[in-house]
What we know:
It is a single chain. By secondary structure, this protein is α+β, with helices and mostly antiparallel strands. The chain has one domain (3-87): 2-Layer Sandwich (Alpha-Beta Plaits), CATH 3.30.70. Helices cover 18% and strands 11% of the residues. The chain has helices at residues 16-20, 67-76, 92-95; strands at 3-5, 26-28, 33-35, 55-57. The strands form two sheets. Strands 1-4 form a two-stranded antiparallel sheet. The chain has a two-stranded antiparallel ribbon with strand order 2-3. A hairpin with a 4-residue loop joins β2 and β3 (33-35). The radius of gyration is 12 Å and the shape is globular.
Amino acid sequence: xxxxxxxxxxxxxxxxxxxxxxxxxxxxxxxxxxxxxxxxxxxxxxxxxxxxxxxxxxxxxxxxxxxxxxxxxxxxxxxxxxxxxxxxxxxxxxxxxxxxxxxxxxx
Length: 107
């Protein structure tokens, strides 16, 4: 089982979650973070740290969010690991509650 980063993270990229991860399973893209599903130990420490509620347990994904399992897996293989927090993107507050952000994901 694993936790996954979902659409709410896109164009926000808060990294509070990174500091609490005991296995460093977060990977960073230009405007999104992902969790490597094969590295996550299902501890749940990251979920409450996300200020935009972008991290969900795979069992809690809605049918519309199921695609985020494959997306996290794919991008974790391509992007560099991140193990220290950084400031959120400059306009994160503006994007926090915007729906349908998948179209803005930068690979």
